[in-house]
Amino acid sequence: MTKKSLVASAALVVVIGLFGSKPGLAGQNLGTVNQVIIGGSIAYISLVNQSGLPGCAGHNRYVVDLVSPTGRAMYLMALSAKLTGTPLLVIGTGACSLLPGDAEDVANTALL
Q: Using an 8 Å Cβ cutoff, are 12 and 5 in contact?
């Protein structure tokens, strides 16, 4: 294990400890951003080789609400990760309230 991957692994443990999540219920992925798509007042985010999203996320992607300041900040973080190739940690809420049957709502994001 390289020093860089060891530091990234340690950072992931710290971030997960800080943000928490609902094990087994919410999607949680770390990786390279595959797509960032805007549709109306929402942004879709998908990572390369992501998995574990809840059944309500029929299109296996995450979604943030661009109307809220938090959603806009998460969108900008995902866009930054896409442009720089920096790994992005996305932790879902376990719910698909913004787009039922389509995408999981995002609870937290972190650049690693």
A: no
Res 26: pLDDT: 86
Contact 109, 78 (CB under 8 A): yes
Asked whether the predicted pLDDT for residue 22 surpasses 50, the reply is: no
Q: Read off the pTM.
A: 0.76
Domains of the chain listed by start with CATH number: 3-111 (2.40.50.340)
E strand spans, the chain? 28-31, 33-39, 42-47, 62-65, 88-92, 104-111
- DSSP-based helix, strand, coil % in the chain, nearest 5: 30, 30, 40
